[in-house]
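[READ THE FOLD]
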Amino acid sequence: IDFSEGALWVAPMAISPGDEFTLFHGRRRLWRTFDGGDFWIESSPFFVNTVSAIAISAADPAVIWAGSSSGELMVSEDDGFVWNTDLPRTELSNNFITDIHCSREDRATAWISYGTFGTVNLWKTTDMGQSWTPLWEQMPDVPVNAVETHPDDENIIFIATDIGVFASFNGGKDWMP
């Protein structure tokens, strides 16, 4: 790893659900190891800012998402060798991506959260990021730090915010503390 390359104070890491020796580490680009951390190689193009979130799909471990502290978003469908850096982002924020959560059932579905004020802080895609649906109706104006779905029912969503945890039991239409 090139340690002169910028990184967050707590840089993100992700372990592949398909191979415990494959890890990804975020700096200004993603780095990957196949041997548990002894040897690292570059795995993504450079981001303008530092990588803030990494997610690997359990439905298809070849699908890898990465987001940055300035809202950039990339996805790879081939285990991190080729990256789609041209995702439509007109609806999305240009702010700090705090988390990306992949569906356990559908390789094309993911949730993304933002840690900012004055914007929608939770989105969902079902088509590999080609379109996004906001899941923020009736929510307070607070940053979201993490998103997780129930392991048996992805319509049950939990989000950790700056003021507490919220849950939705209908796919993000309604929320309760």
